[in-house]
């Protein structure tokens, strides 16, 4: 990667440096943003460990298979201290999984090589814009005391989750616009580990050079919360660009090598809006008992389903297999025979954004990670919300109580309980086949239209993205 950087022309006009948090959901958003900015002709320098960069490259080749006319992204592989971590425990689902924390801690060692890279680019460019994850604010230190370098903070979680997180930290001053919503209560302590909270807060005390914010969200989804965060004391004198959704919303028919993923071929055979897609992101692992209840619930629901059955990512496993997690067999073999006419189980990595945008997909049972929410909103697909940790419970409140484009599987205060198959089949039927579900499905379709329009010429997100690009190049 260094050699690629050296191959750059001696004088660059502008350069953009991306510093993601090393977790799959965050790497994805930085990849999407990189592709969008690169398609506007901006040179992108993507910074991370060799392992994470390889994952992103691998994903880029699958997701952006020639569909996005973008210049190559320069990946800078920096060596970090060993951050291999133990396998995630199933019960780690309740709070932000500790198995990722070593990778986050190791990522702090990026600062010194990052500062070298930024200095080198700054000496050859009119302007350098550094974009770091909102959980990696230490990276803004690489912009310090360089007059032609700006740092932008990229919020890879929803505005609602960020707002409630800070609202609670500040001791909740009265905010009538929020109180009036009477939303179910979720506390920071219940969804974020103290270790992760300390990791984020310790960096905020040392933040330097902060020119503004990017939010992967859109006014149609959470305009009220975007306004609230933009008015927060530490934000109000900074530029705020709400530029989401960043995920692709249209897809080529074939993948990079001309073949289609088996799950897409299977969806091709199903009636319109008939399939519930079931997937819980990259950071949570169900217990074997919960997997058995989910399997039985899907079977009992009588609905068609496409289920991605995988454990939370471990960087070491992920690297060895080039993207597909290896796991032990979790379902009895006769399960596959029983459900084969209307159910498909995918092992490993599935092309989620493409699955959600497929016309046969009619619902999504999701942990409500922010990528999953944005991908589902933009495809107009309603959600059965089963949040686990971090921002997810607050995203689930947005889905069900604010936007009313989904149902909760269970109340958040029952999150530690095993969810019985009957509860699972009931909520799936409610979403996919009831009259009440029809209203929710209709609202999700409407929201999908509004979100896609936000990305078109004159739409709010496209306007903000254009303004951000203009800010970079002028
Ligand atoms: C984590 C946190 O859990 C989440 O709350 C936060 O907003 C981002 O970081 P994660 O568990 O990875 O997210 O979930 P999510 O944000 O939904 O991201 C998962 C991403 O991986 C999505 O973009 C999804 O499309 C992709 N994915 C996942 C696949 O493409 N295929 C898969 O098989 C699994």
From TrEMBL:
GO terms for molecular function: UDP-glucosyltransferase activity; zeatin O-beta-D-xylosyltransferase activity. PANTHER family: GLYCOSYLTRANSFERASE. Gene3D superfamilies: Glycogen Phosphorylase B. It is an enzyme of class 2 (transferase). Residues 13-248 form the Glycosyltransferase N-terminal domain. This is Glycosyltransferase. Its EC number is 2.4.1.-.
């Amino acid at each position: 990667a260094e050699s690629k950087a050296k191959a750059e022309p001696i004088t660059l006009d502008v350069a953009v440096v991306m510093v993601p948090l090393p977790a799959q959901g965050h790497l994805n958003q930085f990849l999407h943003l990189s592709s969008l900015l690169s398609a506007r002709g901006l040179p992108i320098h993507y910074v991370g460990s060799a392992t994470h960069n390889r994952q992103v490259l691998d994903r880029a080749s699958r997701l952006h298979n020639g569909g996005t006319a973008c210049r190559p992204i320069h990946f800078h592989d920096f060596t970090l201290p060993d951050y291999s971590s133990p396998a995630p425990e199933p019960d780690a689902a309740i709070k932000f999984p500790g198995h990722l924390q070593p990778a986050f801690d190791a990522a702090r060692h990026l600062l010194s090589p990052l500062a070298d890279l930024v200095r080198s680019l700054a000496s050859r460019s009119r302007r350098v814009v550094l974009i770091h994850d909102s959980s990696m604010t230490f990276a803004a230190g690489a912009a310090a005391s360089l007059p032609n370098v700006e740092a932008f903070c990229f919020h890879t979680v929803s505005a609602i989750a960020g707002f409630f997180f800070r609202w609670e930290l500040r001791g909740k001053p009265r905010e009538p616009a929020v109180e009036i919503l009477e939303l179910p209560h979720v506390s920071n302590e219940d969804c974020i580990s103290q270790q992760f909270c300390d990791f984020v807060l310790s960096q905020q005390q040392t933040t330097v050079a902060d020119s503004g914010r990017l939010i992967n969200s859109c006014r149609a989804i959470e305009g009220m919360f975007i306004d609230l965060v933009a008015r927060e004391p530490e934000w109000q004198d900074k530029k705020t660009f709400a530029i989401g959704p960043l995920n692709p919303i249209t897809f080529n028919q074939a993948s990079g090598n001309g073949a289609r993923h088996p799950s897409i071929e299977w969806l091709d055979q199903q009636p319109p809006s008939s399939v519930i897609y079931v997937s819980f992101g990259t950071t949570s692992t169900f217990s074997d008992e919960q997997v058995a209840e989910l399997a039985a619930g899907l079977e009992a629901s009588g609905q068609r389903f496409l289920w991605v059955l995988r454990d939370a990512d471990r960087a070491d496993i992920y690297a060895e297999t080039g993207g597909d997690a290896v796991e032990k067999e979790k379902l009895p073999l006769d399960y596959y025979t029983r459900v084969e006419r209307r159910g498909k189980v995918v092992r490993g990595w599935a092309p989620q954004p493409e699955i959600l945008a497929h016309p046969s997909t009619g619902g999504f049972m999701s942990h409500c990670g922010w990528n999953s929410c944005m991908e589902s909103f933009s495809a107009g697909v309603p959600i059965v919300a089963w949040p686990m940790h971090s921002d997810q419970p607050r995203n689930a409140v947005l889905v069900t109580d604010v936007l009313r484009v989904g149902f909760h599987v269970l109340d958040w205060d029952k999150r530690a309980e095993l969810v019985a198959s009957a509860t699972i089949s009931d909520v799936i039927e409610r979403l996919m086949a009831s009259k009440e579900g029809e209203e929710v499905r209709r609202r999700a379709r409407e929201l999908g239209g509004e979100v896609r329009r936000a990305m078109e010429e004159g739409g709010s997100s496209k306007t903000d993205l254009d303004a951000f690009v203009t800010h970079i190049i002028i």
